[in-house]
Design a protein that fits this description.
Length: 520
């Protein structure tokens, strides 16, 4: 009897605790979230590549250097409102569902980007033109505040535990495909129309393309279903609140409220918030340095040919897109923590050599420098989507990740082009981008040191996710066997303390791995 009670106390997995992933739904989830990210980064690619042109259109009375800084300041403003979007959309996604919020952010992003292509120039309406550009960027930034965190959460909650890194990397694959498409469109337009044609009307074309892309993304997202993890969490919350009697527990009601969730995030999960912010800083400083600032740095600061600079950065993004799923699969095999630590150390060691190569004349040396930065970037990009959602429990995941991610991106990521261009102009030191990357690498290394390994394990607050029924049965069998060994070990120590040491010495008892999820 005692042994039976002990076995029950350990609560081995049952088949109902394991979620078998539906493959067609999984494919739709990955595709729809990746298209949304592609839409977002199509805009970023366009904006980075037409920054000089937009400066002439919306800030014509300024000097060339001031035009660039003003354009990037408008770019950075969108990131200042991202935490507000995260505060609104994140907790909302935890309360009403991931699918609804992701559909809303999709249409808002498309409208904001499409509207930029319709704006009149400074020559037409004067100072109102940059103000309208600023308003469009605010809409984009607010919607983006709920986009990436929601997309990573959605994929993570649909993906099997053993393949979360690989499947999550497709989200950032969409990121770099979108950036490559945006920058590629601008590169082709610049080559065909020339500088004069781009200033006159060519800059509008890539922004107008965002309208049809947004409609495609919205259609795909409306066909999505809610994630299994959220459905289970919603059922548990409903049972806790109502308890089947129709009444409402005031303590549970306060816990489920937006204010209660925010309090829980910053009191019980502050360590995860700091780790998330550090890893996001590492990823996004590298990302925006390469994607948004590098084209302008190579042309405005180093005086290199604009077409050459654009082609080199575009080729770097294609390299990242082609290798990112390999990195995601590697993180499933080797772990998230080793990937981040190795990438951080490499960033500290290689940032200065990479920037020095970019400063060299010709094409070959700058190309090698761009490849180095691209390979560093893909380490973080291919690992982040699986790492960040695993930091938080299901009931708080969307909100906690939105807030942590967007605060870090707003303070350190989106401001990277502005701060780097200002520091270069102020100090006259062309190696400022390298120092900036090294500082990010150091912060990332510290954050990765405190990161708990999550590869191959269930998400916090969720049960295991597998691909087949056979795999689920094996997992349940292994869990029961381990629970039996633990119960037997306790039984022997309770009834025969003198034999416990002999039992352990001969390989009995012990728990050599976990098969369940739950809060950690």
């Amino acid at each position: 009897m005692l042994r039976t009670l002990l076995r029950r106390r350990k609560e081995p997995l049952t088949i109902s605790d394991v979620t078998v992933v539906d493959r067609p739904r999984l494919r739709r989830a990955v595709a729809a979230t990746a298209v949304g990210n592609m839409m977002e980064w199509f805009d970023f690619g366009v904006y980075a590549y037409v920054a000089v042109t937009l400066g002439k259109v919306f800030f014509p009375s300024s000097s060339p250097a001031t035009q660039v800084v003003s354009t990037f300041a408008t770019f950075a403003v969108a990131f200042l409102v991202r935490p507000l979007g995260g505060l609104v959309f994140g907790p909302l996604g935890d309360r009403i569902g991931r699918r609804r919020v992701l559909s809303t952010t999709m249409i808002m992003m498309a409208i904001g980007t499409f509207a930029v292509g319709l704006l009149p120039s400074y020559a037409a309406i004067g100072f109102a033109a940059p103000l309208l550009l600023l308003a469009c960027r605010v809409v984009q930034g607010f919607s983006t505040g709920g986009e990436y965190a929601g997309a990573t959460t959605y994929i993570a909650e649909f993906a099997p535990d053993r393949r979360r890194g690989f499947l999550g990397s497709w989200l950032d694959f969409g990121t770099f495909v979108g950036y490559s498409l945006g920058s590629g469109v601008v590169t082709v337009l610049t080559a065909v129309l020339g500088e004069r044609g781009m200033v006159d009307w060519g800059w509008r074309v890539p922004f107008l393309i965002a309208g049809p892309l947004g409609l495609i993304g919205l259609y795909m997202r409306l066909r999505l279903e809610e994630t299994p993890a959220f459905r289970r969490e919603a059922e548990r919350a409903a049972e806790a609140v109502g308890a089947g009697r129709g009444d409402v527990d005031p303590v549970e009601e306060a816990r489920q409220s937006g204010k209660g969730r925010l309090k829980e995030i910053f009191t019980r999960h502050w360590q995860a918030v700091l780790i998330c912010m550090g890893l996001v800083l590492l990823y996004n400083v590298t990302n925006y340095m390469v994607t948004s600032y590098l084209p302008t740095y190579m042309t405005s600061t180093l005086g290199q040919d604009a077409t050459t600079a654009q082609v080199l950065v575009l080729a770097t993004m294609i390299l990242v897109a082609l290798t990112i799923t390999v990195v995601g699969r590697s993180s499933d095999r080797w772990g998230r923590r080793p990937m981040f630590m190795a990438g951080s150390v490499a960033m500290i060691a290689l940032a200065i050599p990479a920037v020095l190569l970019i400063q060299a004349g010709g094409i070959l040396m700058p190309a090698v420098g761009c490849v180095i930065l691209g390979l560093l970037l893909v380490i973080f990009a291919g690992t982040s989507a699986a790492t960040l959602p695993a930091l938080f429990p299901t009931r708080l995941r969307y909100g906690a990740l939105s807030i942590s991610f967007n605060i870090s991106v707003s303070l350190f990521g989106g401001t990277t082009p502005l701060v780097a261009s200002w520091l270069v102009a102020t100090t006259g030191d062309d190696l400022v981008p390298a120092y900036y990357l090294m500082a990010a690498g150091l912060i990332g290394l510290v954050s990765a040191h405190f990161l708990h390994e999550t590869a191959g394990r269930p998400l916090r607050g969720s049960g295991p996710m597998v691909e087949t029924v056979e795999e689920a049965r094996r997992l349940v069998a292994v869990s029961r066997a381990r629970a039996g060994r633990r119960a037997r070990d306790v039984w022997i120590r309770l009834r025969h303390p003198w034999a416990a040491q002999h039992y352990r010495d001969h390989g009995g008892g012990g728990d050599h791995g976990g098969g369940g999820g739950g809060e950690r």
